[in-house]
Every structure is written in C-alpha cells, then in structure tokens.
Amino acid sequence: MTGTALTSWRSEGGGNHQVATEVTDPYRSQISERIRVSVPDRGLRQDLRAISIVWRRELIRFRSDRLRAITSLVQPVLFLFVLGTGLSALAGRGLPSGVDFKTFIYPGVLAMSVLFTAIFSAASIVWDREFGFLREMLVAPVSRSAIVIGKCLGGATVATFQGILILALAGFAHVPYDLGLFLTVIGELLLLSFTLTAFGVMMAARIKQIQAFMALTQMLVMPLFFLSGALYPLNGLPAWLTVLTRLDPLTYIVSPMRHAVFTHLNMPPEVLSRLAPGVTWNGWPVPVGLSLGIVAVMGAVLLGIAIAEFHRTE
Amino acid sequence: MTEPVIVVSDLVKRYGELEAVRGIGFEVRPGETFGFLGPNGAGKSTTIKILCTLADPTAGQAKVAGYDVVKQRDTVRRNIGLVFQDTTLDSYLTGEQNLRFHADLYGVPRAQLQPRMRQVLDMVGLWDRRHAEVATYSGGMKRRLEIARGLLHAPRVLFLDEPTVGLDPQTRSSIWEYINDLKQREDITIFLTTHYMDEAENCDRIAIIDHGKIVAIDTPENLKASVGKDRVQISTTNDQAAIKELKEAFDLDAAIHEGMVTFNVEAGEAFVPRLFAELQQQIRSVSVARPSLDDVFMSYTGKTIRDAEATVGDRNRAHVMAFRRGR
C-alpha cells in the first residue's frame, strides 16, 4: 500500500457531504461512525432487484465488448449482401418481378442476427462458472429463478439490440422504414431471443466446458436456421422437408416475421400468398397468434427447465 | 451475548466412497477468529462448504448465526460473508460494479450502500481504485476486494477459505493486517481455514483437522503448551560443567545442539530467572523457544503438515478438483 493522500468521507447530520482530509494510510482512515446495514428478508422485491442487476450486468458487459457486437454482425451481413446478391440472378427467376431475393431472405437474416448472440449470451454462464463468478450468484440469498430470469432477459435484450442493427439496414433490402413494422418485428425478435437464451441457459446448466458448449450449440443452431424457412418458402417442399420445417421451432417465428415484412410491401395478394404462405399443418394455415404462442410457450417451458436445472446444481 | 455463533455436532460428509468429514463437532463464540488448520484434503474445505450452505451434510447438524444450514439456508446466507480460495469476481466489471452487483443480490438498502461501500473499500485500501476494471488488479488487490465484498452486507460471520493461498509472503501479511484491522472495526466472527502454520497463530482458537477428524481444539498458546516443554538454549563459560550441573541440580538432560547447551523444560521463561540465580557457571546468552504449531501438528498426528499433504493431498486432490468443477 502506498501512503497516498486520499479524500476521506463521512456523513454529517441528515445530508451527505464530502469532507476532504489528508489521510496518510488510507485503510486506516478514520470513519467516524459505523454504517449500520440491515439486510431485509427475502421477498419479491429482493428477487426483482436481483433480476434487474443480473440483467444490467449483461448490458454492461455487452457495452464493453464491442468486438463481440461487431463479429456477430458479420454473419447476417454476409448472408444478406453476399449470398443475397450472389444468388439474386439465379433465385430471381423464381420470384415475381420487382421482388429482390434480398427482400425475401431479409426476415430470415433478422432471425439469424439474434440467433448467435442469444445463444452466446447463455455461454457466459459457462464462462462465469469457469471464472468463479457463477458461485457469487449461486450463494446469494435470492432465488435461482431470479438469476436465470435475469440472465435470459439480459441475453434477449442484447440479442434484440443486434437485430435492431440489422433492422437499420432495411433500406438495402428494399424494406420500408415503417414504425408499425419495426415495432412488430422488434417484439418478435425479443420473443425469439428470450426463447433462444432460455434454451442456451438450459444447456449451460449441464455443460461445464466452454468448448463443448460452443460445439454443441453450433451443431444445433445451423440445422435450426436452415430448417426454419429463412431462405426458402415453406410451400411446395418435399414431404420429408415439410415435416422437418414444421418441427423446427424457429419456423414459427420466421414465418410471422416474413408475414409482417411482406404485408408492408404493397404486393398483390397472390404474390404475398406465394412468398409468405405462412405455416400450414396438413393444409391448415396456422394463425400468426398461434404461431407466436407456440414460441412463447416454448420459451416458458425452456425457462422452467433451466430454473429447475439450476436448483439441482448443488 | 455468549451464545455460540457456530454450532456443529456430529457432522459427516461422504462423497461416494470417500468420507471427507468424519463426525466433527465444535462451537465458535461471537467475535472469535476461529481457524481450521490442516493439510490439503483433510476436510477443511468440505466443512466450510457445509457451513456456507454450499453442500449438504450427509449426517449431523450445523447452525450458523443461530440458523440451521440445511433448513434455513437463505437466512444463513444473509448472515454470512464468503471469501473463497478461487476468485469469484467479474474481472470485466470495475471494483465498484462488483460491489454494486453484490449489494443488489443481498438486498443492501440503497440509502446505506454508498457510505457502506466507502467504508469497506477504505478498509481494504481500494477506494481510489474502485473505477478500475478488476482485470487490472493484482492478486492481492483481488483478494482484498473479495474481503470488502464479503463484508458489504454486514454479515455476522465472515468465512475465509484459505484467504492467502497463492499470494506472495508480503501480500499475505498485508491481508492479515486488513483482517486484524477489520476485527477492530466490525462486530464480526471470522471462520477461516489455512494450511499455513504461521497464519493459524493469528487465530483466537484453532481446530486441528486431519483425515476428516478434529484432533485438537484450543487457543494457539494452549495447544503449544500442551505439547509441553519449551526449548532453552544457553551458552556459558564452561558448557560441559553446565551440563553436569543442570543434571545434578535441576534434573535436566542437556546436550550441545547448534553449539549451545540445549534442554527442554516446562514454562521456559519462568525457569530462566531461577537458572540465573542458581547456576554456578556464568551464563553468556540465553534463548527460549516456544513450541511452534508445527510441533503441535506433529505431536497430534505424528507427522508434519507437509508430510501429510504429500500423502493425503494427492489422493484427494483429483476428487476435490472434480467436485469444484462440478459446481
């Protein structure tokens, strides 16, 4: 310890104010009164405060990690501009005139932009375990649910923010900057991100090694993305692929997002129904509300499993 | 308040085949600094984990601050502060952000947070570094920040699991300065584990643990006294005559060690004046050495703490590591 001068602080009367004094040995500086700290009993308010701080920590860490923000934009940008442009001549033949392939895959690219960020947010739990910080959270007198919910909300917020950055590129995909559309899409991105983070947290509860976690999630994420109809319409597919796309939970969020985008493009109804046919179950069109409901229920179930897993890890 | 703040009875912890803790019992009084001394793998960390509600006992009971560690887990947690062997800080956050995180998890009232944060950071000398990222802290600073954080919610018991392990000797002694300083300021009981003999001397009372059992429990002075005799070394004008005289007049077996007349006697300091008064030979110098805790450990377990670590430690370490990773 160097004996540097330091400003000592004390509270006087009701108000707090700073008093500057020279102290040679900082840790022996005199603090006139003991600060009485009384920690309240555990309750809903305590849990909400815990959720809030776990959530805010994710944001603080995301803000200080710009590299991560940039790198996770690379993939969606590649898909949109390189794949989208490269395939447009070829794919354009299947599209009605005036519809760009980039426009078609835009909703899928939005979903993709949150996909990796959401799951990688959950990976921070694996890191936290490795670096010990998870223990600081698990020994606190708050419910495990509060910690898991805070994590999922944090991951969802960060991922949605990534999605919003891609949303800012809407003009390049000939999608209008429409407030109503944007709010709808942001809402859907939030729902998707929350569900994905919950899925990631559930996995992170079991997988202790970061390498294993990354490998496993990569292995699961790519099929989820490719089977979701992000890059092709859901109608007129071979039977096996039709079944697989209907089993992919991501399908139920990509389809409403495409619906939202395409209804803002002023295209004739027959074109709309060809490009954004929506999910059908054996010919029955699944309403947008049900589709979103499926994702929400799934998010809730995954969250429940994640909480249960963290209750057991002791 | 004379009610003990930690009460442990017949505590057992088994991990499969391995019996890490084999029926221990003890009490810790309020305001005490109580040390668990033993080699790695003796059951220290397991016991501290049970007391901190991080592991459930296989059998037996433990109460901390009056609450059962199994049945009233959350209440126990609110009343204890923890500093682990391995760091549990978020190194991407600043020192202050780490404390704020802790305050919110433990529900420290917002009005008290700022002054309390100032107080604990001042106590460990980190107030002027509070806006720096923890990644830039040295090992000693990290440990001090953890101590400050463990105190933030004003716990009744502070648990320190090997608080100075992995630190250089200078940093180790400064950590002890902070701990002793803290005893002056806070109304707190400290429970710590260590396998450093010299650190155990800082405790009010020590339990010596070996193979999952407490082999002795007392103040460092009493433990050392129980080993018995102090070692007295004198040099005289005629050493051979002195040895003969010691045998005849005091019935002491003396011999030359390290170039001095050496013998063991109970209560060495009290004996020395008598020696001066009665010994015919002129004494040129005298030294009295109390038995060290090393001698204590040796006398209770028949081996030095280092020997014990070489055998028990290796056997259990693989298991302990696996357990730690599993958490």
Describe this entry's structure for a reader.
- The complex is a heterodimer of chains A (314) and B (327).
- Chain A is mainly alpha-helical.
- Chain A has one domain (49-302).
- Helices cover 65% and strands 3% of the residues of chain A.
- In chain A, the strands form two sheets. Chain A has a two-stranded antiparallel ribbon with strand order 1-2. Chain A has a two-stranded antiparallel ribbon with strand order 3-4.
- Chain A is elongated, with a radius of gyration of 25 Å.
- Residues 1-33 of chain A have low confidence and may be disordered.
- Chain B has helices spanning 44-51, 73-78, 95-106, 110-123, 139-152, 169-185, 197-200, 220-227, 239-250, 268-278, 293-301, 305-326, and strands spanning 6-15, 18-28, 33-37, 59-64, 67-68, 80-83, 157-161, 189-194, 205-210, 213-218, 230-236, 255-257, 260-265, 283-289.
- In chain B, the strands form three sheets. In chain B, strands 6-7-8-3-9-10 form a six-stranded mixed beta sheet, with helices on both faces.
- In chain B, a hairpin with a 2-residue loop joins β12 and β13.
- Chain B is elongated.
- The relative contact order of chain B is 0.14.
- The model of chain B is unreliable at 312-327 (pLDDT under 50).
- At the A-B interface, α1 and α4 of A face α2, α3, α4 and α6 of B.
Mean of all residue-level pLDDT scores of chain A: 84
CATH architecture of the largest domain in chain B: 3-Layer(aba) Sandwich
The tally of structural domains of chain A comes to 1
Structural class call of chain B reads: alpha/beta
| Major pleated sheet of chain A | 2 strands, antiparallel
* Average pLDDT over all residues of chain B: 84
Q: What's the total count of β strands of chain B? A: 14
Q: For the terminal residues of chain B, how far apart are their CA atoms?
A: 36 Å
The helix/strand series of chain A, from N terminus to C terminus, equals: EEHHHHHHHHHHEEH
Radius of gyration of chain B: 24 Å
Structural class of chain A: mainly alpha
pLDDT < 50 stretches of chain B: 312-327
- Low-confidence spans of chain A: pLDDT under 50, at least 5 residues? 1-33
Name of the level-1 CATH class of the largest domain in chain B: Alpha Beta
